[in-house]
Amino acid sequence: MTQRARIDHDGPERAGGAAIDAGAELDPVHPMKPPAPRFKPAGLSTAEVAERVARGDVNDVPVRSSRSTADIVRANVFTRFNAIIGVLWVIMLIVAPIQDSLFGFVIIANTGIGIIQELRAKKTLDGLAVIGEAKPSVRRDGSTAEVSTSEIVLDDVIELGPGDKVVVDGLVGEADGLEIDESLLTGEADPVLKKPGDQVMSGSFVVAGGGAFTATKVGREAYAAQLAEEASRFTLVHSELRSGISTILKYVTWMMVPTSIGLVISQLVVKDSNLKDSIARTVGGIVPMIPEGLVLLTSVAFAIGVIRLGRKQCLVQELPAIEGLARVDVVCLDKTGTLTEGGMDVTELRPLGGAEAAYVKKVLGALGESDPRPNASLQAIIDAYPDSAEWRCTESLPFSSARKYSGASFSEGDGENNTWLLGAPDVLLPAGDPALDEINGLNEQGLRVLLLARSARELDDPAVATGVRPTALVVLEQRLRPDAADTLRYFDEQNVKAKVISGDNAVSVGAVAGKLGLPGAHNTVDARELPAERAEMAEVLDGNSVFGRVTPQQKRDMVGALQSNGHTVAMTGDGVNDVLALKDADIGVSMGSGSEATRAVAQIVLLNNSFATLPSVVAEGRRVIGNITRVATLFLTKTVYSVLLAILVVCSQVEYPFLPRHLTLLSTLTIGIPAFFLALAPNKERAKPHFVKRVMRYAIPGGAIAAFATFATYLIARAHYTGPDSLKAETSAATLALFLTSMWVLAIIARPYTWWRVALVGAMGAAFLVVLVVPWLQDFFQLKLEGVTMPWIAVAIAAAASAAIEFTFRWVDRRFQA
What we know:
Keywords: Membrane, Translocase, Transmembrane, Transmembrane helix. This protein is of the alpha/beta class.
């Protein structure tokens, strides 16, 4: 009775489920090439599988959910800035006391933290990837079982159904309306109808129908594996944050080179001072120019974000997806599986045109039995009306989201041969049909209605749905997700517009959205009436929230229209009909129970199938991006004032005021420790574009003011102090001015204040005070304020600089909004 039974019964001659003997001839292009394998409907035997495993014909491509341990260590250790600082560290270990080499130990600690955090993230990702890995159905010894993709061997017979991903290359042996989408490989959006003997490529997926194929290429020979060698699944997509930091570092490097050369010449040649002291002060001027902590902090923040989301059963397949969701202002939701749970229940059966209820139930039971891979609607019908009729299925038409119906032809045992269709009433019935009024009333209650209709045409007739005779209405009730209403409310509060885009009837979709409290749910739009022009479509999309009868291609067009209007779009879905839209959206989010195809193209997979996890993902993204943008100002302010101080020293032909130990102390207290805590703090502000502009508009004026204030204090101190040890007193005064000015920048960045932020800033100030008053710390850092006048002058200059920074930052907020 089942489709599979029909194939076995009819044998290999049937076109619908034909078995091929592809080994009859040698390949005419490659005559020495072995013949293609003969299709074996029963699959390989256990002995044949063992033989192939022994000779290595196994699909042994590792699942790359993250970078390898060696890659993580290499990426954190062998960096351009670690190389620069490493060389400077070795020099300082040779020519100066250990306290001037502290910056090197900080780099070791930071690199170690980065490695540890990424390894923790890798462990989380690898574990989740195994949980989320789909297992294809493979025939062996005459039975079908699910196996891991890594256990597939050459010549295995692999079954395919709607939503399944083709995991290895092969030749089709059985095909029953098998349509394969190869858009991820070829860019061609239209599905390709496959027949026995046709080739299928790994990385494609099934959109309709079913069948089976023989694996001809496994492991690294498969097409998808060859693509993966060039770009693995974990290759980073575009990240404005990462590219922005790279741009900043590129300009910093350009500034560093001439400035450092000038500083070296100034300290070693022009001043002709003590060689070791000159080297130490030269290095002290170069090291703080490098914002190495910013790169590390970004990696750590991303890694911690992945770990946090992993604990909530959320698999982040591409790290910048965290950043992308933070920037999202429109989220498109597929109703089925997202707002509603996968299952449905038949609540009512309404025969039409005098049809007998008992006969209708027989037809529905037979239709359910004819599809070996029923969707949620058909599964509900199967549960309600199990097959009891001894009818023979002569042909079947799998459900397609593009045509909105499925069908089958039966030989009913009494000489009757009938073709039946089951699908959307507004697609199968002409406009104005009396039955549509009754259906609309049910849709307005949020119920889903399918029409059972008899067709007078053959099932393979393109016009099979024309002129059908309505026989019954099947009323289904969808199960709403209990957490969907709260999630929609969260998006509304966060100014993220939710758009429900579904292939179901628009009125029914609107009723479901209305029950969940979606703003604008009463204004539903039938996608068949949407304008084709992108600009006009974008205008309709902006003004409405619920769209029904959307085709897969329209979902893709709608995502593109929203993007053309300047929106950052996230798309959620779990069905194969969502794949095109998921692929084109800025961020694709798939349910863990969704098809293998949707999980393959999505950047984020919700393994617990809970739509309620999305707010956590958005919040995590906003926390990471908002905080990195915030603390980046601290790091780059230091870079700006370090470069300007070096330039001022070179131009003035004076000793560089600081040793490395001074700037290590300042960086630790005003940047390093505070930045770590601020980067992990809660932050609900939606991420904004133009990262470089947003950061540099504060860092440049803040760093410039700090540099000029510090250098002015240093020059005044040079005039104030005399004697052989005057440089230490001058350095101490300049250090005090720079610390106080940097602390004010930190105080601005730490806003809005909470008890722990105030405590953090206060603790940093107290730590510096301890260094100034404890004798052995004074000696260790060579910091001792001499007299009363100069320290108070330094405080006054720092206060004026802080006021200037406060005024400038506020002016920048008004004048240069990013």
